[in-house]
Design the sequence.
């Protein structure tokens, strides 16, 4: 199905897209049909800079299992990082 | 007549008088006036697969045009980036869709080879939009390929800017062909049955086919949802339907 279910996240950081590095200001997270991954539905994340236009985008399409593993890995790394380094 | 076609990017006048991009595919020498088809792209956008569908209609003797429904959000962007931008803004508003399809239909009717008849076809979100166009505009035939939320509310918590439109069934201006997968959840077989009941109650001309072993997006040749048997039969149903109502 076409879910349109989208969570938006304000972000501050950088990503490397088709035209090189750019400052990321927003993220979109949604579960829907992928463009490229060979699955019916995937967890998709767009790292965006809307003020730079639609092409300022780094996109990933992950199986639900991969996305959950990624969440755990991110949590684990952040938890183990020494405090005060940000 | 010959089997030669021309396929090209053009601009058309869409909703609100806006100039939007479109993809036009037409027989070069049909030999006699022919019908036109507005192809409404699926949610992943104005992509290569949808343009291929337009060319398929042209090779079967129809003028076809695909309006780029995401042009305003992302002019010139690649289809996947445009679809992401449109999604982030909540999708295509219903009134804008109707205006863009009206502009596409006007373009088709103005072609020198046109016989004056225009149909729509849409896939996925475009299936609902094909029905929406047919209850909003004077058309000659409409095809709904697994369009969700003609019937039924989006699941709770989904920030979907579309709602059910089955109550508009009495306004349907033309015969409707519906092609669905039995394994689809949106629309589910229950949703399809409710739409069929509404069409019957309103005395409308319709033809529904639901395919066993097929789910959502079974026409998409580049996706795992592709079901060759359903898609091949579905294409035959489409050409038979348009052959009756757009001739």
Sequence:
């Amino acid at each position: 199905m076409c879910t349109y279910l989208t969570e938006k996240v304000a972000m501050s950081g950088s990503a490397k897209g088709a035209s090189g590095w750019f400052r990321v200001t927003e993220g979109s997270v949604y579960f829907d049909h992928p463009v490229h991954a060979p699955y019916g539905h995937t967890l998709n994340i767009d790292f965006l800079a809307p003020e730079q236009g639609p092409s300022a985008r780094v996109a990933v399409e992950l199986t639900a299992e991969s996305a959950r593993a990624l969440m755990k890995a991110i949590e684990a790394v952040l938890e183990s990082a020494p405090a005060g380094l940000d | 007549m010959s089997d030669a076609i021309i396929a090209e990017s053009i601009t058309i006048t869409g909703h609100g008088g806006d100039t939007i991009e479109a993809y036009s595919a037409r027989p070069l020498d049909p030999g006699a006036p022919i019908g036109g088809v507005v192809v409404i792209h699926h949610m992943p956008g104005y992509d290569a697969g949808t343009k291929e569908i337009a060319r398929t209609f042209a090779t079967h003797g129809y003028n076809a045009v695909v309006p780029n429904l995401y042009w305003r959000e992302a002019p010139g962007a690649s289809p996947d980036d445009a679809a992401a931008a449109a999604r982030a803004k909540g999708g295509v508003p219903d009134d804008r869709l109707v205006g863009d399809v009206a502009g596409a239909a006007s373009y088709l009717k103005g072609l020198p080879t046109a016989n004056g008849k225009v149909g729509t076809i849409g896939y996925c979100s475009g299936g609902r939009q094909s029905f929406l166009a047919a209850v909003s505009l004077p058309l000659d035939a409409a095809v709904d390929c697994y369009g969700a939320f003609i019937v039924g509310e989006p699941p709770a918590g989904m920030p979907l800017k579309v709602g059910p439109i089955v109550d508009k069934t009495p306004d349907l201006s033309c015969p409707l062909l519906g092609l669905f997968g039995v394994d689809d959840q949106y629309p589910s077989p229950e949703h399809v049955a409710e739409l069929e009941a509404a069409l019957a109650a309103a005395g409308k001309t319709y033809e529904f086919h639901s395919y066993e072993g097929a789910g959502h997006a079974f026409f998409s040749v580049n996706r795992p949802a592709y079901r060759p048997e359903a898609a091949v039969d579905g294409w035959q149903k489409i050409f038979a339907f348009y052959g009756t109502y757009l001739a």
About this structure: Chain B touches chain A through 36 residues (CB under 8 Å). The mean pLDDT of chain B is 95. The beta strands of chain B are 5-13, 19-27, 34-40, 63-67, 114-123, 141-145, 176-181, 206-211. Residues 178 and 208 of chain B are 5 Å apart (CA to CA).
